[in-house]
């Protein structure tokens, strides 16, 4: 049973704007112009956040003419969700078996 969660991905997703971007991309593939309209972020700020998401492997790009579209990589989110599910299962088993460390 897995008992930890990918902290690097959590750090990336902990930023409110990046989480908003991920939420929007879960619903549809969008270009940066769409993301600026939806989030109200400035172009440079949005570009920096998209770079972090790309480098973390959470989003992928698709060039389309002079635009770049961004798509959420669902398998990465599913993996993170699975890590949380494993962590929850470990906690349930611990509670059911009354597992606790003895005090010295």
Task: Spell out the blueprint of helices and strands.
Blueprint: H1 7-13, H2 16-27, E1 30-31, H3 32-39, H4 43-55, E2 59-64, E3 67-72, H5 74-96
Antiparallel strand pairs: 1-3, 2-3
Describe the structure.
With 104 residues, the chain is of the alpha+beta class. It contains 5 helices and 3 strands. The protein has helices at residues 7-13, 16-27, 32-39, 43-55, 74-96, and strands at residues 30-31, 59-64, 67-72. It has a 3-stranded antiparallel beta sheet. The chain starts with 6 loop residues before the first helix and ends in an 8-residue tail after the last helix.
Average pLDDT: 92
Low-confidence stretches: none
Radius of gyration: 18 Å
Shape, please? elongated
Structural class of the secondary elements?
alpha+beta
Order of helices and strands: HHEHHEEH
Q: Care to count the β-strands? A: 3
Oligomer: single chain
Keywords:
5 helices
Quick recap:
The chain has about 100 residues and is α+β, with helices and mostly antiparallel strands.
